[in-house]
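Review box. Two proteins, two foldings.
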Amino acid sequence: MEKRFKKNLIDFNIKYYSELDSTNRYIKNLDSSENDEGLVIVAEKQLKGRGRNGNDWYSPAGTGLYFSILLEPEISVLDLSKINMIISLALYNVLKNKYPVKMKWPNDIYLADKKIAGILIESNIEAEMVKEVIVGVGCNTNQEVFPDELNKKAGSLLLFSGETVNNKNILTDILIEFDSLYSDFMIDGIDYFGVWKQELGIIGQEIKVKSNSNIIQGEVVDIDRQGNLILEKEGGNRQVISSGEVSVIKGGYKN
């Protein structure tokens, strides 16, 4: 099934599939003649759904919202992190209208201390310019159960509220909000770094970061313009953290 609609900047072309390996991988494997900015691939089920850091994303049929957007921004590689901030805020802004969600660095959404959404961004860079970006989103909407290994850390909108979610409606809301923020950035040069940084609520928190086999602990004293955490470790040494799984040691997120 295919659906088209145009907002401020992006001419969205939404294509629905009952089953794919992953929505990101599907776009990556398309012939260049099929790749236009605004292509949105949605799967009812992902056989090999992927999250950040090589993690799998649990994607059973008929429950969650799994989709990817193709962008062709032609921006400097230094601005790639802005795409992450914009899609994170778009997802957060839509969900917070109905649920007490929180953003977790760098682009996860939590509800009642359980992860309900995540983002995977993949890009094609040539000569320091971002030619293509695939933005993958997984949102746990109508899951009623999770595998044992996910029970303690994964949740869904249905499990929180007891109400079934219309995935097509929430997808439309997310795309409209994303297009608005993306248009602000691409057309008017509006930088959403400050808003994203404030909504994270992580500055001043003591955290533990797991990256590969290393665990680093310290206080988040700042976030730089590229979205990296500035961590002050015991003894006063500072370290830049660009990726990893973060857990807050004391107090939880502030927002």
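Next protein.
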Amino acid sequence: MAKTKAFRPKARRPRGFEDRSAHVLRAERALVSAASAVYEQWGFEPLETPAFEYADALGKFLPDEERPNEGVFAMQDDDDQWMALRYDLTAPLARFAAENFQDLAKPFRRYQFGEVWRNEKPGPGRFRQFVQCDADSVGAPGPAADAEMIALASEVMGSAGLSEGEYVIRVNDRRLLDGVLERLGDAASEKRLRVLRAIDKMDRLGLEGVELLLGEGRKDESGDFTEGAGLDADQRRHVLSFIEAGQVDDALTGAGRNAEVLKRLTQAFGDTDAGKLAVADLETITSVLDVLGKSDNWTLDTSVVRGLGYYTGPVFEAELLAEAQYEDGSPIRFGSVGGGGRYDDLVSRFTGQAVPATGFSFGVSRFAAALSALKRLDAAKADPLVIIVAAEKDRMADYFALAADLRGAGLRAEAFIGGGNMGKQLKYADRRDADFAVIIGSDEREAGEAQIKDLKLGARLAAEITDNKAWREDQPAQFTVSRDQIVSAIKARLTGG
């Protein structure tokens, strides 16, 4: 009888998901820690909501979709109710705020970071699972709350190691967009999403590309055709004039630039109800940000749309202006790494009463990757690592004790447990990017000493020294200390002593 072959599953990642390595995780954790410190300082409290929410709680506020269960990973629980993995952190916040409304101090100021999942077509840099970090104020009416969020976004940029001029917070108001659509007439109302999508592509396609999308449509370089909003020439000119209101002389910066844009917006939309409210709120936002010393960190930008689902007032995006370079020397431009705005209708889905809210969110993975390319976030670097070489297999207890002593002194240390000779262990230390290797063999043990190899210095000297004889005779990266001086000797090397 033939022997049944054992089933061996193929080792493979699900499409659209990624494995994140140690250096990526450290960068992300450092970024989250920096942002969380800002949120705490500004009086926000942490909150953790579950990964799953009932699908009807997410409702129509799925990304760019009107149907529940579209764009999410959903399943039925044991009582046949549909649950879905959260696609962002805002919809769960709305559910939490509604469920606990009477017990919450309002405004309810919370921050949260965690994984979110989206059942969308994956692509380059577009994953189905990623980490977001949010801060929100629920029950906070008025433009002052929006100004605080914009200032908070600026503070997060600074906490991540960015200087003024390396980022900008671009601000618009969805009610200005409503004013544009109001001018287009009732016939254009059904074209709202396509008009907004066209404006949202201003930074990538420019005015010419936007005009094509406002009209019959646009064919990209690959030959794919995107159907347009079908606006006539006069309607297209009206939308483009709105976008151009935010395109002022480059010589104008900071408060002067924003004042000029506000002047233009007042002239263009002062006769629409939505436009009047938006301009008045933007004036208040401007005054608050001026007082907070943020005049040079933000700018009014009429091309900012910020999603199509639930924003009802001011919207903003945090954009990186700093550039890094690819290996071939070409520039890496990062664009938007986060944003937010006012969403006054989200909690009311549950409560039936208006609950104003505003928030800021950034994608941790995208932002951390950009900061890594810019060589920011020093905290993302791992602490120096010490490897204790297991030179004598019957002395493992001694090596574990030494590692414990090093950890007790605040160092990062491990005793090697993988087996193999000293050469293999030192190769392991190199692959781990360890800073030091401590060797205590029989000779060192009997003498009460230890050999310490400064691996980073050794690698640097090996690259610099061409005279092998001088290398063998000098060996400056390896030295001997007494057993009770191991900790102090390593710390002295780390501090340059």
